[in-house]
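Cross-check.
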Amino acid sequence: MITFSRPFSAACLVGSALASLACAQGLPPGLSRNKVDTFLDFTTNPVLTPLTTNARPIYACSVHRLPSDRGSQVTLSFTVRALQGYGNPAYSGFVLAKWDPTAATPLTLIHDADAVNGAFVDYNLNLEPSGRYAVFDRFGTPGQGLPYLGIHLAARVDDLSPYGAPVPVANVQGSNGFGDPAIGTVNGQLKLFYAGQATNSANVRVSGILMDDLVGAGTPTPQAAGHPVLVSEPSDPSRYCHSPSLVHGADGDVEGLFVAEGNAAGDRSDVYFAADLDPTTPQVLAVTNTSWLSSGGNSGGVAIFTQRDNAQAPRVIEGAWLVGDEVAPGGIADVTMSAYGAPGKPPAWAMVFCSPFWLQSPVSLPGVIGELGVLPIPFLSLRPTGLDQRADWQLRIPHAAFLRGLDLRMQGLATHVAADDSVVRTLTNTATIRVR
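Predicted model, tokenized:
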């Protein structure tokens, strides 16, 4: 039986919002769960325990949905200290796994990354959505002083084939002595995302996330174009961004990202969310922790991060987030909401509100996770998410020059049935369609 824990009504939603009109921009995604995942614990899961005897096994972990993933299945990428087997890396190495919480065998390890591993300290393998390419950081051995050997790329024919031996990516400009790379497309062009330094719009040098064209992927000599642009900057210039986790839109392009942000002392790192790739849009705090969060990934309404003070299991968050688009008059704007749905339950339902302005201050609603930041005018139709936990809309913008410069403010509401059959309603972050 479905139960409702607290009352909720459209009249309450609209009435509360009308009391707060004018500008509460920059709200984070609503999170229905934020936990260390006990199922993925290397000390207790019998699938994972044979991989290493190291007391701090997880160096990094990310999650991806590839074309061959079916139903609720996703692909996990673990960086494991003292990994045993799987190419027999000397120090740390990668192992991929198929994870489906609804299956009789939820976790299956695969050997697709064996040829990537070697006699190095390798870190944070991130896969491109087609599964054909993967990027990671490579360091020399401890005996060599752990010199940074740069971002490396591995390629394969398709996501059902094993990766070949990796090669370095040349001409990467402005990196911080590490890359924490990720890979995806923007406007159909393959892009490399990585941590680095750049000058922001206020002419201040910051350590943010850079994006550059990636050319020659799949050849022996891939390289960055050498013209990186800043796509995300820290909330304060004394802090630095790292570990970008790309959020993809309906057309497959990268539209936003989760990004970790470390403090100057290097003892605290929290996760922020950027709803677009404009560094002047402030990224908002999404997940805070007393230790260090980094090196994650996201698929549908699930995101995974590595947690320094618990290196036996990753931190998993579940919730709802929204990305907009930038489009010219006459173009089609793609809007994508990712929303968690409990295994074995109906998919989440998604709706997007739109308004020409933000609310003056965010509004909390009874029975709803998150805060409201726009006047809740239903704008894009209510629809169920797919098995990939996403709902996509396309909005054609009239071909009128006077619309150039218009910003449409958006926020989504997701509804899913929890494992105990209660109904969970979650507001997404705020996002924007920019007509340019």
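DSSP finds one helix and 32 strands in the chain. The first strand starts at residue 21 and ends at 22. Passed to J.P. for a second look.
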